[in-house]
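Deliverable D2.4 — example input (C-alpha cells):
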C-alpha cells in the first residue's frame, strides 16, 4: 500500500487536519497503526503547536444561541460545533486544543472538551462555595485552563475575590484548582489587590507550568504556579507603558510569554526569553498606518513568528510578518451582539485525550 518509509509517512500524516487524519485511519492497517502510536501523537501535537488558529464565539442578535467559528491562516474559515455537550455553553478558556466551557443555564457547571475529537468531560462540582458567588458579575474573576500535552493531563483554575454579603471584596483571593489526574478540586487562599479587565481575563497564557494574566492596569503579569500553588508577579518590559493611547496584551509565542503593545501608529512585540531572570527581548515593530481607521478596535489574539491574528468589532485580520501584508480572514455579515474580540481565543488542533 505504501512506498514510503514509516517515518516519512508519519511526517506527512502529521500535517493533515484532524478530521482528515481520522479518515486515513480507515485506509489500511498500516496507516491505522502509524497514526495510533504515542510517537505519532507527540509528533502531531508538536507540528500543531507551530500552527495556531483562532476560535471566535459569535452571538447573533436575532437568535438566542451563538455559533463558534475557527479561523485558520492556511485553510480559511470553518464552523465548529459543540453540540455534543448537549448544553448551552460559553467558552471560557482555551489551551493546547482543549476548551473550558461553562453552562449558561446552570451556574457552576464546567466542561473541558476537545472540539476536534469531540471528547469531553463534565467536571465534578466543588464542595466549596461556588466561586461564581465571590464576584458581583456572577462568575469567577479568573478562569484558566492548563493542558500539559507531554503528561496528558489538564487543570482548570477558578479564582475570585471573597465578598461577604453587603460588603466590598476584602482582598482575600480564593483559588480552586481542578486536577484531571486526581479528578478532584483543591483550594488555597491568598491576598491580591489587582483588578482585571474582560480582555485581561480572556487572555490567559499557559507556559512554564504556570497560568499568566495581565493585570487591568498593565502594571504587571500575575502568574499562578500549578506545581506549588503560589502566585508570582512578573514585570513587563521597561519600555511598555499603559494609557495615553497605548493598549497592552498578553499572548504566547513559541512556548514563551509575549507582550504586544498597540498605539495609534505602532504594534510592538516583546518575548520573555529568560523566564526566571525576567529578560524581555524585542521581536517586532509594525507600522499601523495602512489600517489606521481600524486601530482603535483591533485586539491581537494569537501569533507565531510568521503571523499575528487580530480581531476587531466585525472582522478577523491576519498580519504576515515577513511580507508585512494585512489580510481580512473573516467578516461578520449579520448583526452580532458583541465585538468579535470579546469572545476570541487562541486555538490549535491537537490529539489530547480526556
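Example output (designed residues):
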Amino acid at each position: 500500500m505504501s512506498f514510503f518509509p514509516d517515518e516519512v509517512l508519519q511526517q506527512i500524516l502529521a500535517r493533515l487536519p484532524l478530521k482528515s487524519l481520522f479518515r486515513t485511519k480507515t485506509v489500511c492497517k498500516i496507516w491505522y497503526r502509524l497514526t495510533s502510536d504515542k510517537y505519532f501523537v507527540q509528533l502531531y501535537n508538536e507540528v500543531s503547536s507551530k500552527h495556531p488558529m483562532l476560535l471566535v464565539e459569535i452571538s447573533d442578535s436575532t437568535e438566542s444561541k451563538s455559533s463558534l467559528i475557527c479561523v485558520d491562516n492556511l485553510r480559511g474559515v470553518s464552523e465548529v460545533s459543540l453540540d455534543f455537550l448537549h448544553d448551552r455553553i460559553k467558552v471560557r478558556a482555551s489551551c493546547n486544543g482543549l476548551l473550558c466551557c461553562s453552562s449558561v443555564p446552570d451556574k457552576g457547571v464546567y466542561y473541558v472538551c476537545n472540539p476536534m475529537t469531540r471528547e469531553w468531560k463534565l467536571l465534578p462540582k466543588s464542595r466549596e462555595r461556588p466561586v461564581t458567588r465571590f464576584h458581583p458579575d456572577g462568575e469567577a474573576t479568573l478562569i484558566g485552563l492548563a493542558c500539559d500535552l507531554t503528561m496528558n493531563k489538564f487543570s482548570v483554575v477558578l479564582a475570585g475575590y471573597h465578598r461577604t454579603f453587603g460588603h466590598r471584596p476584602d482582598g482575600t483571593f480564593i483559588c480552586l484548582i481542578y486536577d484531571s489526574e486526581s479528578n478532584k478540586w483543591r483550594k488555597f487562599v491568598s491576598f491580591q489587590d489587582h483588578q482585571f479587565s474582560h480582555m485581561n481575563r480572556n487572555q490567559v497564557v499557559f507556559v512554564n507550568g504556570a497560568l499568566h494574566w495581565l493585570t487591568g492596569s498593565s502594571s504587571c503579569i500575575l502568574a499562578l504556579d500549578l506545581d506549588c500553588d503560589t502566585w508570582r508577579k512578573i514585570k513587563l518590559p521597561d519600555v511598555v507603558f499603559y494609557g495615553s493611547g497605548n493598549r497592552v496584551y498578553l499572548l504566547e509565542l513559541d512556548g514563551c510569554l509575549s507582550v504586544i503593545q498597540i498605539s495609534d501608529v505602532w504594534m510592538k512585540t516583546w518575548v520573555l526569553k529568560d523566564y526566571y531572570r525576567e529578560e524581555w527581548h524585542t521581536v517586532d515593530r509594525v507600522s499601523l498606518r495602512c489600517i489606521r481607521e481600524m486601530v482603535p478596535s483591533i485586539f491581537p489574539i494569537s501569533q507565531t513568528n510568521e503571523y499575528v491574528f487580530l480581531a476587531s468589532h466585525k472582522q478577523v485580520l491576519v498580519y504576515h510578518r515577513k511580507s508585512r501584508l494585512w489580510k481580512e480572514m473573516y467578516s461578520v455579515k449579520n448583526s452580532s451582539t458583541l465585538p468579535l474580540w470579546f469572545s476570541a481565543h487562541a486555538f490549535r488542533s491537537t490529539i489530547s485525550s480526556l
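Residues 88 and 324 are 40 Å apart (CA to CA).
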